[in-house]
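Protein entry
_____________
===
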Amino acid sequence: MSLSLTSPTWPAPFAPTGEPLAAPPARPGPGRGPFAPPSAGRLIRVSAPAPATDPRPGRYCPTPVTTVGGQDDPGDPGAGPRLLLLGPVRLWGAAGPRPPKAERSCLEYLAWLLEHPGATAATMARGLCVAEGTRRSNLSRLRAWLGPAADGRPHLPAAYSGQLHLHPGVASDWRHCQLLLQPWGGPGWTGRLVAALGLVRGRPLADVGRGQWTWAEPLRAAMADTLRPAALELSHRALALDDIAAARWAVDRGRAALPEDEALRRQSRRVDRRGGDRLPVNRLTTGLGGRPTPTARPPVAARRLVCPRPAAA
């Protein structure tokens, strides 16, 4: 039996595949493309081929990843700017030119503004630990980078009222993930879990070092506390329906974001056992990045099968 995903009403701001989400793509069939969305309510199996960017080739992935100019494309080209935080930090869909300098600072400022709507200039300077002159210069660069919205208004208006507000069209994949998972449970729950986990591209804030963006440590923890239960919930629901492919995809998405998480590691082994994987040596001895994990050892039975002892003479 496989997961039954109905078509929920997906909230703004965007869908990761560039079109309104209905359900993960079905197995290709006659007259269908490899990622054609199935009709609402159809019983489908999460069995689309993994994209080339998947760290573990051959894994099942229900949300294909498209690229524009070599960067991840999270949504509709007509939508506003999108800050991608569930992986390496990227800005997609900006209407202006990329700043010639301080690009990383602009990304940090945008992330801070998304998390602190209506903040004052003084609050922003204290939160980012920057001088007022630096804040104003980088904010000007960010305003030019975001450019104007389709309605003619700037994506980052000047703070004449004393408070900083972004245009409603500016959003992030993290905010979209939160909207998908609220409320926890309810109608379309399985499909919302799939869509939320499909936004994961790697560790949250993957290219932000621990000494950088110090204000964002609670944000990083909140992302982990959201993605972990979502991955476990979807994996448990898939196992209850004996859909091993969907359960494996869910736990892989969780471990892509949290590769050292013990709860997800245990769930991964549980899925392996349910799937009849008698030789999970690669999953136990290597992480998602392919680097050995010295503390992990395959079961005794697996070691004997991999390295059988020579028969006695």
Summary: The CA atoms of residues 143 and 156 lie 5 Å apart. Residues 217-240 form the longest helix (24 residues). The beta strands are 66-68, 71-73, 82-84, 90-92, 171-172. Residues 172-274 form one domain.
